[in-house]
Specification:
6-stranded parallel β-sheet; 14 helices; elongated
Length: about 400
């Protein structure tokens, strides 16, 4: 893949496909990590005299404008980070976008409105997607792919547009791919993987692949209860995917056969009521053994013995990949499991990778210094699919 160093950008319109899919509460950005991650690439292009056209998706609008998914707040925050105005275009390929791009001077930056306001962005029809890519291509002379969180999507701005313009990879994607290679090629051992989050089904492919590579796999979060159920334990009303129990049994058997430690919670915090995440009112959870969850209660975080166990399993690691929280980290009564894993990574001399998504959000929400980790990814889904060994359409499109 070419890098931006190999492009002549001065005076030219450079389309930067970023991933600015940040969490919003109204017009307030609650985590600007993805904006900060791509800002150096945008700044570098602008400093080199490019006329920078930034584009991204946000949320899941249904192919038409929806004010709650507008990127207007992102344009303001991006400007603050860059230290220069970012002109916001009120559409993607319409009159506003065309006029805004045409008015750009050297070193200036614009952000287009949400790409997913146009149905062609996510269409499964090649012709419809291609037609939208043609309209986007008319706005630029060059293409830089730097939206790592979207490279696993076969979308117009990610997959089709690079074929229509001279293209290169941005600094963020270069860094992300380099990190992921360290997790898949000549890995330093012991290699420990920590998986959490809600659903086993979201992690099936990566578990299957990592059983061939990891030395230990630690499981927490909602997905742990399907594994506990597979071992014959009562899980009450905890998150459960009954249809995945056979797969869980297979993974446990394969792990034992291959000598991979597969570690599950030994105690959990449970409650009959899901916590109020708005008021953060005290939840008063009960602590029980993981094989003694009451039938009418739900597991919401790993307990203190599990936190201690997982920290011990991470202490001698040389490489760690973590994707998914250990519990409902948004509530202080159920944040300690996720906090313990994050702290164990901070304390470890290992090369530590936080695999994007909720894990990255938790690190910031819980007040950890981001520089204390080896790498915090901007793409949870993309990271997982890369580790599964899949071909990511957005990366394939950037190859020469």
């Amino acid at each position: 893949m070419k890098t931006i160093d190999e492009l002549e950008v001065a005076g030219r319109r450079v389309f930067v496909r970023a991933d600015l899919n940040v969490p919003l509460e109204g017009d307030t950005i609650t985590d600007d990590g993805r904006i900060r991650a791509v800002a150096p690439t945008i700044a570098r292009l602008a400093d080199a005299g490019a006329r920078v056209v930034v584009a991204s998706h946000l949320g899941r609008p249904k192919g038409a404008p929806d004010p709650q998914f507008s990127l207007a707040p992102v344009a303001k925050r991006l400007g603050e980070i860059l230290g220069k105005p970012v002109v916001f275009a009120a559409d993607t390929v319409g009159d506003s976008a065309k006029a805004t791009v045409a008015a750009l001077g050297d070193g200036e930056v614009t952000l287009l409105e949400n790409l997913r306001f146009n149905a062609g962005e996510t269409s499964k029809d090649d012709a419809e997607r291609g037609a939208f890519a043609d309209e986007l291509a008319a706005l630029a002379d060059l293409y830089v792919g730097d939206g790592f969180g979207a490279v696993h999507r076969k979308h117009a701005s990610v997959y089709d547009l690079p074929a229509r313009l001279p293209h290169a990879v941005g600094g963020l994607i270069s860094t992300e791919v380099g990190v992921l290679k360290k997790l898949t090629e000549n890995v330093e051992r012991p290699y420990v993987v920590v998986l959490g989050g809600a659903k086993v089904s979201d992690k099936l492919g990566v578990i299957d692949h990592l059983l061939e590579k990891a030395d230990r796999i630690l499981v927490g979060g909602g997905m742990a209860y399907t594994f506990l159920k597979a071992k014959g334990h009562e899980v009450g009303v905890s998150l459960l995917q009954e249809d995945q129990i056979p797969a869980c049994l297979d993974y446990l058997a394969r792990a034992e056969k291959r000598g991979v430690e597969f570690v599950l919670p030994v105690d959990v915090l449970v409650s009959a009521e899901f916590p109020d995440l708005k008021t953060k009112a005290p939840a008063n959870p009960d602590l029980v053994s993981s094989d003694a969850i009451p039938a009418d209660e739900e597991g919401l975080d790993i307990g203190p013995k599990t936190r201690e166990l997982y920290a011990s399993k991470l202490a001698d690691a040389a490489t760690v990949f973590w994707n998914g929280p250990m519990g409902v980290f948004e509530h202080p009564d159920y944040a300690n499991g996720t906090k313990a894993v994050a702290q164990a990574l901070v304390d470890s001399p290992a090369f530590t990778v936080v695999g994007g998504g909720d894990s990255a959000a938790a690190v910031r929400l819980l007040g950890f210094d981001e520089t204390a980790f080896g790498h915090i990814s901007t793409g949870g889904g993309a990271s997982l699919e890369y580790l599964e060994g899949k071909t990511l359409p957005g990366l394939a499109a950037l190859e020469d």
